[in-house]
Amino acid sequence: MVLKRKSMKNLSKILVLLFCIGLSACGSQRVATSTPAPVAPVAKTSKSPFGETFTVPCPMYDDDEWFGATGIARGSYERMDVLQEMALTNAQNLCRQKMKHAYKGMVSDYAKYIGNNQGSNARTNIERAGDQVIDAIVNDTQSKCTEFSAVDDKGYVACYVGIKISKKEIADKIVDQISRDEEMGIGFEEDQYRKSMDKTFMKFKENKQ
Questions:
Q1: Please, which residues bridge with residue 166 across strands?
Q2: Strands 145-148 and 66-76, how do they pair?
Q3: Which phi and psi (to 5°) does residue 158 adopt?
Q4: Cβ(205)–Cβ(171) below 8 Å
Q5: Spatial distance between the Cα atoms of 152 and 45, rounded to a whole number of angstroms
Q6: DSSP of 174-197, one letter per residue?
Q7: Do the Cβ atoms of 114 and 187 come closer than 8 Å?
Q8: Which letter, b or e, does each residue of 148-167 get, where b requires 16 or more Cβ atoms within 10 Å of its Cβ?
Q9: I need a labelling partner for 56 at 20 to 30 A (CA). Which of 15, 95, 170, 176 fits?
Q10: How far apart are CA 9 and CA 17, in angstroms?
Q11: What is the pLDDT of residues 111-166, one digit of tens each?
Q12: pTM for the full model?
């Protein structure tokens, strides 16, 4: 009789234990199924007709005193030194184009001022002298700002290099070059030429790179 009671107690304990285990399992299942599923991020829509835009690092713009440009190069992160040189060259070429465009316009205005009686080769010689000075200054230009982007999934980075070139320095060196050139064959009016160049360079402002 005593043995039978012990067996019944043991059976009761086993049933209670199984019941508790069942409740725990059900509770775990309910928690798992009640967790909300992750929501995918919603892409931001841009009101601009050109889509999303961003500001280029190392922005260098033209103003009254400076020509500015930002060069960009992209490639492997393992050759960041080469990318920096490429970006610098790109910035120099952009600045060179703007400077020569502004200078050519100034020479055209000055040629009209002095007239054709100064010689048919006056404009060509003045343009050549100015281009030589511009090339020398641009080729010697170093970066004012250098930044690299993060490495993408292909192992590529973008390099940005910004440069600035003094408009006064260009004007002074061009005037000095033309004044010393004995083969110009023209009656060079330095004061008028400098005024024309200063006015043209100051007006040239390409605000967007």
A1: 66
A2: unpaired
A3: -110, 140
A4: no
A5: 23
A6: HHHHHHH-TT--S---HHHHHHHH
A7: yes
A8: eeeeeeeeebbbbbbbbbeb
A9: 170
A10: 12
A11: 777 665 555 567 778 888 899 999 999 999 999 999 999 999 999 999 999 999 99
A12: 0.69
Q: How many CB atoms are located within 10 Å of the residue 23 CB? A: 10
**Token pair 């033309």: residue:** 178
**Beta strands in 46-178, from DSSP E residues, in sequence order:** 66-76, 145-148, 156-166
Hunting for tokens 């909300």 — which residue is that?
36
| Cα–Cα distance measured from residue 103 to residue 196, given in angstroms and rounded to the nearest whole number | 10
Q: Which residues contact 168 (CB under 8 A, 6 or more apart)?
A: 65, 198
Residue 59 has φ and ψ, to the nearest 5°, of -70, 130
